[in-house]
Amino acid sequence: MAQIDAFFKLMNEQGASDLHLVSGQQPVLRIQGDLERVKYKTLDNDSLKAMLYEIAPEHHVKVFEETGDVDFAYEIPGLARYRANFFQHRNGVGAVFREIPATILTVEELGLPTVIKRLASLPRGLVLVTGPTGSGKSTTLAAIIHEANITRKEHILTIEDPIEFVHKSEKAVINHREVYVHTKTFSAALKGALREDPDIILVGEMRDLETISLAIEAATTGHLVFATLHTQSASKTVDRIIEVFPDAQQQQVRNTLADGIRAVISQTLFKRTDIKGRVAALEIMIATPAVRNLIREAKTFQIPSMIQTGAKYGMQTLDDAILKLLNKKIISADQAYAKAEDKAKFLPFMKNSPADFTEI
């Protein structure tokens, strides 16, 4: 057993999502969104480096020493997998680990709207799950892929950096590929994917123009593509994709994206006030013909209005999702106000002045 495994066991016992190990500081756990120091000695650089290098594959150590950053996955059988990031800082080395549960929760167990489950049965198209870092995008995608795995006799290919949730093939055949281990880049893996007879492709992150272009191409040539972006709403997601391309190509991309897109789920996490844990609030945009026309005509600013009137298709705004959680007393008014789009709607629920006075 590696020395660092004791911290992972503590992390699991405490229900922490993240572990911070930084030279010159005590270990820190993120529990329900808050950072909590561990009662342990201050970590010195040499002992921490030895602890980290014990679990890192040799080629990742080499990359880290050459660049100062590296990502990879580490697994403790029977406990969990961990997404690891090593980095250099002023006082030496540091690392942050995100726990990836061994058990994949279903859409029902996560309490997600039923339309999320239906996305797993789409025959083709592009589905984007967006939100800030740590908002639960990977967990939502894992639930969707799990649903496809148990219901479809098809080939599912995942491309990630690093591999997070590991699915065992059920009705589907699932292959996991890790960037920098099994392939050089996301774009190289996507080019190869089109020759590997996939029905469903999961792209861990659309990071650059080429990857975005290939993902859209795959979605418009008969594949069902799931991917993530670090954007905070459906309309901003569409704009972000378009803006990556040179001006001369943007109208063509609008047309292609409008043909291929099927849904955008934008989510954020809240600390629960009723029980221990966190809960996601989701904005859901379903790409109806009317929504696709807005994308073609560069009228993405009208998408929020379309979402508000699209409840019969399973659409909902982020504020409506937050309001439901608040009315059920699952989250606090302070949290609801902090993460809402239309903050004025949540002011009547506040007992004190908002912490962010710049929003008033």
TrEMBL record:
* Segments forming domain Bacterial type II secretion system protein E: 194-208
Entries under SUPFAM superfamilies matching the protein: P-loop containing nucleoside triphosphate hydrolases (SSF52540)
Which GO terms of the molecular function aspect are on file?
ATP binding; ATP hydrolysis activity
Matches recorded under SMART domains? AAA (SM00382)
Q: Which Pfam families match?
A: T2SSE
- InterPro entries this protein is in? AAA+_ATPase (IPR003593), P-loop_NTPase (IPR027417), PilT/PilU (IPR006321), T2SS/T4SS_dom (IPR001482), T4SS_GSP_E_ATPase (IPR050921)
PANTHER family referenced in this protein's UniProt entry, alphabetically = TWITCHING MOTILITY PROTEIN PILT, TYPE IV PILUS RETRACTATION ATPASE PILT
Its family remark reads: Belongs to the GSP E family.
Which protein is depicted?
A: Transporter
Organism this protein belongs to: uncultured Desulfobacterium sp
